[in-house]
Amino acid sequence: MIEELAVSKLHNTCDPLSLSCKSSADVKPQRTIFGQERAVHAMRFGLDIQDHGFNIFAAGVSGTGRTTAVERFLESIATNKKTPSDWCYVHNFDDNYRPHAIRLPAGRASEYEKDLESLNKSATADIRAAFEGESYRTQLEATLGGFQEQKEQLFKELGKISKEKGFDLQMSARGIMALPLKDGKPISEEDFLKLDEAEQEQFLKKQEQLQGEIEAAVRQTQELDSKAQEAHAQLDQEVAHFVLHHLVDNLKEKYKDIPDVLSHLDSLHHDVLENLSQFKTELKEETQPKSAPAKPQTNKYQVNLLVDNSKVKGAPVVVELNPTYTNLFGRIEQEAFMGALVTDFTLIRGGSLHQANGGYLVLPAEDVLKNPFTWESLKRSLLNREISIEQPGERSVFTTKSLRPEPIPLNVKVILIGRPDTYQLLLAHDDDFREMFKVKADFDSQMERNDERIQEYVSFVCTLCEYENLRHVDQSGLARIVDHGSRLADDQRKLSTRFGDLADVIREANYYAGKENAELITASHINNTIEERYYRASLIQDRLRERIADDKIKIEVGGEKIGQINGLSVLQLGDLSFGQPSRITANIGLGKQGVVNVEREANMSGPTHTKGVLIISGYLAQKFARNKPLSLNAHLAFEQNYGGIDGDSASSTELYAILSALAEVPIKQEVAVTGSVNQKGEVQAIGGVNQKIEGFFEICKLKGLTGDQGVMIPASNVNNLMLKQDVLDAVKNGEFHVWAVETIEDGIEVLTGESDTIFEHADKRLREMAKDLAKYS
Hints:
The protein is of the alpha/beta class. It has 26 helices and 31 strands.
């Protein structure tokens, strides 16, 4: 069936008066997901089920607002969830390189951090004051005084014994020396040698006996010193404990419901008592010159607050748009000191995974896969259900000694947002992916066009204008946005869900409305935006149009030619796609090769185009070779095509050219054709129908509209028509036409004015060619 389409079938126009509001300002903004019921259903299932591995992959094309929609959906759910725990790291008093991770109820980790800071300051000040106080000095003197008296009494008795034996005791760097006396005076070494041997022998014997007494006295002195030190340390411990115990006990009472905190406070208390000397050392260091380099301080008594959920209501929703390894898993920072890099537990920093723990983490899938270590580490964390903070260098051949913080238990729902092909690749090549991401949420690029969906479009416009402080859109502008949504969807019955593109149109229209000081955005501003966007991107298209106008690219839009037809294709250049006519020719000769694809012979034909040409051979065999051989060589070519071609949307066009050449019946050059064909001669739908029609219309307008020109499309593509206004006006005025056909028979009638006769002519020609070929066999 052949149908010349009326203007009403070329565009589905939204009547502004059909809208229930005068402008988008009359509607309430809604932070919800529009037109994605299937995706919402899948996400709700994935979020509700708590079994391991039910993370979500949100698949869809870019621009459908997946990230924003997912974030809003999660926020609506998260507010009713329990707020997760805080996490902090504290010093491990048993292993400096293995900081402890402590879980506290939401909001209490920051309290604990402040409490320990206060404890540190109070304990330092109170201990110093206690050691500097008169009471401490009195107790210390009383404690050490007895030992000093015992030492003095011991040396007094030793001195008495040495006098009795004729020796005097003197202290030296080598210890206590016993010098012989004569007449109550020490004898010099020279005088000692002058004594007779008997007298010298007597002195040496007494000296040997005295040496034993001296060594015994030294041992007793050392024991007294040791006991004095122990007594001193015991006194310090008692003083410090007296200062500390009420401070620590107060905190233990406050945090009595958190065993990890109680254990940490006990360890801290014990460590302070074991290292009281550092407080005294700090007192001495205060008197050092300021120019002296300070030692790197590892403040063991601080808290490193890693996750603070004190201001979070419900479960956290974290969107990490730059998922590097450190941004996701955290890092251990280092500081330069004396030419070396040093670190401690206070330099541990958390990542997005820590912030999202107990809630939801949204990640762009392609960026996760591009960052080194990120994907494998994410899978490992989800599999082991814990977060480990490691230095990236630990995964290299050469490693350095660093901290190994305790892992933190992980309970998070990860939502990966990516393209459908990314999902398929991961599913095919990563066995862990199937186990870790068991839920797929498909975001559709279009939705039904009905009153409910149109109202959602209006709500979207209102929400955008309100949140971005844009001008609101009037009735005419809203209707134009609806029409543009159908154009983006390439379907009169659908609306595009590429809300990112729609939002950009509204933002730009707001700019043009501002230049006119308009109160509202109107249809003219929307039209101006669309035209300006097209103009900014259409330089290449204009250059091709110039080449056609100069006849450098040969396109005829009038007259008739045998074996020549205007085909249509779509060129995609970045953010611009436009239709481009191409001259397709067919030459027929004797032979047995059948249909010869010149593009394929030149290695310029893609697999889909090659398949389309082979289907033509199948059609010709079914139509003409049931009772005779198909004795022809039919050469098909896209003239002036130097960049290759793919797709089967020109297969019907190529078939028309072959039939024309076979039957020697001319084809109207004012009619361009698009559509694929099957082996049964049915014309099938193709893509880019609007761009193809508009592309040929532009060439006809460039060369002059005659009133006979037009485009022939598959009947199954009629619902895809959303043509521009200038094309609609030309059709309305009878200057341009659009025909819809269902079969090759319909199409050949539009192109030649004949139907059955052309097939008769073609069959007759083939029979003659078979006879001629037989003569030369």
